[in-house]
Amino acid sequence: MENKQGINTGIAIHRIKQYIIFFWENHLEQHFKEEENLLFNTMNDDKIIVAIQQHKNIRGKIKALYENDITDTLLLQQLAEDLNHHIRYEERVLFSFF
C-alpha cells in the first residue's frame, strides 16, 4: 500500500479502494494499535507525538475511503504518500536507535 503502482498501471479505483480496506482491516489497523499500545505509550517524546499524529492522519484518510464513493485518485495518492512518509519516518527517525 505504500506505493502508487496500482494507480500508475490503471487499475480501477474501486479495486484499489477494496484492497486498501482489506489491507487496513487485516494488517495495518492492528499494527498501529500494537505500536501505540506497546511502544508509544511507554515513551513521552516529540518523535512519538509526530508518529501518533501520522497514525491519526492515515486513519482519517482510511475513514474517508469507507465513507465516500471515491471517483478520482487524489485521496488514494495522498494516502500512499502519507503511508510512505510514515514508514520512512519510523525507519529513519523514530526507530533509528535500534
Kindly, what is the distance between the CA atoms of the first and last residues, rounded to a whole number of angstroms?
25 Å
The number of distinct helices, counting runs of at least 4 residues, comes to 4
Structural class: mainly alpha
Determine the strand fraction and express it as a percent band: under 5%
Q: What's the shape?
A: elongated
Most strands sheet: none
Tally of discrete structural domains: 1
The share of residues in helices is: over 70%
Mean pLDDT: 90
Gyration radius (Cα, Å) is 14 Å
Order of helices and strands: HHHH
- The number of strands is 0
Low-confidence stretches: none
Write the layout of secondary structure elements.
Layout: H1 5-8, H2 13-39, H3 46-67, H4 74-94
Detailed description of the structure:
The chain has 98 residues and is mostly helical. The protein has helices spanning 5-8, 13-39, 46-67, 74-94. It has one domain (5-94). The longest helix is centred in the first third of the chain and has 27 residues, at 13-39. The radius of gyration is 14 Å and the shape is elongated.
